[in-house]
Amino acid sequence: MTGTMFELTKTAKVNGTTLAYCELGEGPPVLFVHGGTADLRVWGKQLPVVGAAYRAISYSQRYCRPNAGIEPEAANPFDPHVDDLAAFIREIGAEPAHVVGSSSGALISLLAAIRYPEVIGSLVLAEPPALPLFVSVPPRAAELLRLMATRPKVAVAIMQFALGTMLPSTRAFKRGDDEKALVAFLRGVLGEQTLSQLPEETVQVLRDNISTLRGTLLHDGAFPPLADAEVQGVNIPVLLVTGERSPAVFSHLTDRLEELLPIAERTEIPDASHIMFEENASSFNEAILGFIGRHHDRPT
């Protein structure tokens, strides 16, 4: 379905911008929120399956295809995307929605549940980069040293991610080598095996939206603060999802979310990494449908 999704799009105007989206099916709304360097097309293996039983919706965040792109050198912080998500849910009459987020889209979804609890009935969070629970982004040396004293494995994983993924990607962007920046970032979040097996169609989606990653990595402060107490206040069902082959940093961050969230379930998608919805769509779909089915009475 991925190749035809742009042909099925509608638009919604929120917060001074226009967001493209597509939807299939009827019933309780299930909204999919993509991660960075992506757009609504990445959910092509989910919408037909989920749309058979629910109102399945996938939208492109601001600056992501086919929406208007980001200005060169402009920052791309998380906060406007959080506000957009809540406004979008209201605009299309989908509140409260079951929200399924991946990567940075999962962090956006979590932040929306904290700030706009009335619009979200449940959450599926697939490896959100919830780094602000432990450190600033990019992390400061003093923060890592303090974390090393209390959670050494977490500190090492974050340090490896910062030095091995974020730093080389940022440096490549600063040199103007966007392709190398994208490859460095994908190698760090997906792993070499997944990167080497990515379908060309998926790679093209990532290339189409690379400017959004540049806008996030090149500007400090893109990640908002996130306090333990804020996560503890999310009193809705949450399914935490990790990939069997994902980098260790995502497992550690998910561990912390599992400790803090009042109503949390957790599952691991076998034979998959960070883009588990693509690599093992059948297991991912089964997990989210089972979770939503257990909590479908919450959204109206």
Write the layout of secondary structure elements.
Blueprint: E1 10-14, E2 17-24, E3 29-33, H1 47-50, E4 55-59, H2 79-91, E5 97-102, H3 104-115, E6 120-126, H4 141-150, H5 152-175, H6 178-190, H7 192-196, H8 200-208, H9 210-217, H10 228-232, E7 238-243, H11 248-260, E8 264-269, H12 276-279, H13 281-294
Parallel strand pairs: 3-4, 3-5, 5-6, 6-7, 7-8
Antiparallel strand pairs: 1-2, 2-4
Helix pairs in contact: 2-3, 4-5, 5-6, 5-11
Protein model, in words:
The chain is α/β, with parallel strands linked by helices and 300 residues long. The protein has a domain at 2-134 and 223-294: 3-Layer(aba) Sandwich (Rossmann fold). 45% of the residues lie in helices and 16% in strands. The chain has 13 helices and eight strands. The chain has helices at residues 47-50, 79-91, 104-115, 141-150, 152-175, 178-190, 192-196, 200-208, 210-217, 228-232, 248-260, 276-279, 281-294; strands at residues 10-14, 17-24, 29-33, 55-59, 97-102, 120-126, 238-243, 264-269. An eight-stranded mixed beta sheet has the order 1-2-4-3-5-6-7-8, sandwiched between helices. Helix 5 (152-175) runs antiparallel to helix 6 (178-190). The chain is globular, with a radius of gyration of 18 Å. The mean pLDDT is 95.
